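Internal ticket - ligand job 292, pantoate:
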Amino acid sequence: MKVFKAISPLREYLAARSSAGQQILFVPTMGALHTGHVSLVERAKADGGEVVLSIFVNPTQFNNPEDLEKYPRTVGEDLAAAKEAGVDCVFLPSVEEMYPCGDKATVSLKAGKMAELWCGASRPGHFDGVLTVVSALFNIVGPDKAYFGEKDWQQLQLIKRLVLEQHFPVEIVSCPTMREADGLAMSSRNVRLSADERLKALCLSRALEFVSQGIGQQLALPELLQKARVMIEAEGFEVDYLAVINDEVLPAETAAEAVRVLGAMNVGAVRLIDNMPAGFSLNVTDVNQNNM
Ligand code: PAF
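stdout (structure tokens):
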């Protein structure tokens, strides 16, 4: 597995692979790799080509300095996991390499209407930072395909728009959320939960499942969401948002236009998000198991 910290040799290497007829298949990450990331690599590998994984904790997408500071950084383990998963090439840039004029980048992309609600409302500027870094990474790596998890649903929709509106010649492949055996969505942030918080954190996926299964049944969307809020608050957590959205990532007015159920909650200083399609079942048999 090749590891590049600098852009020029990475570009040279990938140009040669591309000339040799290999598709460039790109998995961008912020490290702290878990099974969810490995599933993106596996999906890329199944497509056949040069699998490139980037590890970069992007400062411009953190609106909270404490969150940036506490974001897990596990490069040694990440490189071992990437190798084990069959990654061909890792891009591991420094902040200086990615932002040559400083991380208060001179030029920044601005996410529009699709970023106004949900995570965009709670984390002002977050999606501007995501789109700016993803655009820079696409320019550096020049992928044929790029793989993103559905867990960050709003991010995924914005990246699809980035590609459409900025005319990047890349296919975005969306990959389903990986879950622990008890239904908790996998996240690099989960390691920051105490054992008790980890167990109780299940309330998010269960509340979303409740709403998802209730869409189009007896209760109207606002009532479903209110009951879901109570399920989370009963565990002592603060709801950031709960929503049923349409395909523009705006609140669904009716069950017929409901595409996805989204939620975010704060577990102390740890912010967890999750989402699922309408009518989704977690298929969890034993909600008490803890497979972290
Ligand atoms: O989803 C992530 O891990 C990050 O937002 C991404 C897409 C790698 C950009 O930093």
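Auto-summary: The chain has eleven helices and nine strands. The radius of gyration is 19 Å.
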